[in-house]
Amino acid sequence: SKIYAYYDNGTTSGGLPIQAFAPISITDGGATGSDIITVQTGSNFLGSIPATITQKMPQSSSELNVSFTGGFNPNDLILVSQGGNCTLMEVTQVQNAALKLQHNPGGSPTYNPPTSYQNSPSPLPPPPAPQDPWPPYFSGAKILNMGQLTISNFSINTNGNLQSSASQLGAAAVSQDLVKDIVSLQAQYGIAPAGGETVSNWVDATGSWAAPSAADVKRIKAIRLVVIARSGKKELSNVTGQCTNASGAVNNGPCAWNDSTANPAPVIDLSANPDWRKYRYRVYQTIIPLRNVIWADL
To answer: 3-state SS of the chain?
Structure first.
């Protein structure tokens, strides 16, 4: 399948990489830093019933004739799919009486490309021959309403608080502290073999998994994460020592979880604080399966 998408933020414009479609992604924090987890959600995706196109949409058309318009609103993001192609569009106008959805180009920020870009883009994945135009869609093509796209980042700020920062198209990010005294956030991707659905191993977001290819994004079926909380009281003597995983990795702090040589856990290193041994810690861990990932055949 091929995914066609575009974004103009007012400064730069062009096609979106496949990573931009991942429902969840991890930014590795390095040897001693915490990871950042990015989650993308649509406000309406799980509760929407797909509409269908009722008349052919030419390749450069900004108008969709649809079976119904209920639930669609301006600024909603929609996915139009048919025959292995999937195109991301932004609704600019809803014509309820005429049963039409407009996705006009122009303005910023926008997910709607100019006609000139639609005529000669490079869709993902994989890169086809140059000048491959965006596809037309015919009667019966499905339209999935994602609603308003929210991008949320979870990280640890300089005050040692677990923080969320959420933003929507064209709006400033809103940040809030969730929990205080958090000293480490680490995460791994649970990946399955190509074409499979069962997680076979866990990987850090490093190397090729720092920016997964289109094929590898489809292999991500879950994430596993650990949050390390620190007590508010600093003890007079050392109360915490190093922890050695089954994989042989030595942690300057508690172990994330029981691991194996084949699937090593993230290494916890709290030594940036010279007094880390004088605090007590609690480890919270969980596995989050990814469901309803439409491009991963779930």
So the answer is: CEEECEEECCCCEEECCHHHHCCEEEECCCCCCCCEEEEEEECCCCCCCCEEECCCECCCCCEEEECCCCCCCCCCEEEEEECCEEEEEECCEEECCCCEEECCCCCCCECCCCHHHHHCCCCECCCCCCCCCCCCECCCCEEEEEECEEEEEEEECCCCCEEEEEEECCCCCEEEEEECCEEEEEEEEEECCCCCCCCCEEECCCHHHCCCCHHHHCCEEEEEEEEEEECCCCCCCCCCCCEECCCCCEEECCCCCCCCCCCCCCCCECCCCCCHHHCCEEEEEEEEECCCCHHHCC
